[in-house]
User: Fold this.
Amino acid sequence: MSENIEIQTLGMKANFTVVSDSPITDPASATKENKTSGALKKSSRYRSRSLSASSTDSYSSNSCTGSSSEDDDISPREKIQKNSGGSNDFCVRNINQHAFGRREIEIAEQEMPGIMALRKRAGDDKPLKNAKVIGCTHINAQTAVLIETLSALGASVRWAACNIYSTQNEVAAALAEAGFSVFAWRAETEEDFWWCIDKCINAENWQPNIILDDGGDATHLMLKKYPAMFKLIKGIVEESVTGVHRLYQLSKSGKLTVPAMNVNDSVTKTKFDNLYSCRESIIDSLKRSTDVMFGGKQVIVCGYGEVGKGCAQGLRGVGCIVYVTEIDPICALQASMDGYRVVRLNEVIRNVDIVITATGNKNVVTREHMDKMKSGCIVCNMGHSNTEIDVNSLRTTDLTWEKIRSQVDHVIWPDGKRIILLAEGRLVNLSCSSLSSFVVSITSATQALALIELFNAPPNRYKSDVYLLPKKMDEYVATLHLPTFDAHLTELTDDQAKYMGLNKAGPFKPNYYRY
Assistant:
């Protein structure tokens, strides 16, 4: 049996249920109330500027998703499309883009050594045979590598997007052409968004038995609309702060009837996807979308968790003056010791050039804050939920929206002041840029192992609660990526292992260890 199958048996009996001391409002309620957040209400004024090819290209992130054509005016739901195999069990912008998408997937594979190694090592054993996975994540070239890996490991999958702006249309087309049931396209409406997830869940002659979620939307819809189906699934793997908060709320209220794996707080996800990735992607997103010069700019980062830490480090590295807001005294102390000034948003809002949210909460930046911002201030969100910036408060008749380019809007006040809003408050690094394939490889390998663990776990290993990823799996994911750096681990001697009370093969740290 291959190495990764042995890891399946390393389930954790401990029950980790602590996520925060205070309750977090379920963002799903805000999503319901703000159903029109994906499109401007008719009551607000909106101007659109024509785009030159160069301005579109500067945003497009080497992807044809930024391009437009007459075909884009037709909703994919109204099109009749089939792949070369004759299947129409998908809904994408344009199936004819599949060749370009396939090239992007092949490029991503070269930079994703961990997930490709897992595919090779476990392919013969098919640890996900008979698994029927509902996926609701960002759909890009890196996600496609994960989807095809799950399929190679034996799973049947149906996939939708967790963000209406982050889908790469050509990649979705490539997946559809390869026979995957994908329902996603860039710039979906809110109605389209929920329709796509519903199409994944409610399929004829196909009963899902496990969920891979990013934000909790697939979990939320299945629980609310298909409660009987929800009780039959073997588990949930969740990778975002927002989705994890939802799971802990469900657990606390007794509504979580299946086990769930909190991948977001795994070490590999927290450190690499949140800190190291965001340290680079925040710079890339802001530069591509606004062409801003960073040196000397005053920036406030709301939240100093791993995402906030990455953003602050990256921005300071290019010459910004960085302020931090925090509710947690420990994180605030960390920021202070790292050399940042910790302030309240109201104290500096009139002077800052860039405002970045990274909290996972709601209404962090309100209309009152935006009324006080200076003209030209850039406002964007790095947290998963689109509720951090109160964008709906800007959809009023007294303000004018001017579309500058894809995902870039100027919101203009009656006195001529304007702020620059990116991606309508949604996740800016996936809406206006792209992520490092190497970092996504780490996250994808973590997600795949979590799915394998939950799907193959004995009946009584996991109860209906939220669990952290077993430490051994975290270490295994890291091990898969070390050869890329020609890194060589030191091995403990028998005497050293006995002295430390460790197994020579790991795990090397207790679960309470903070990396």
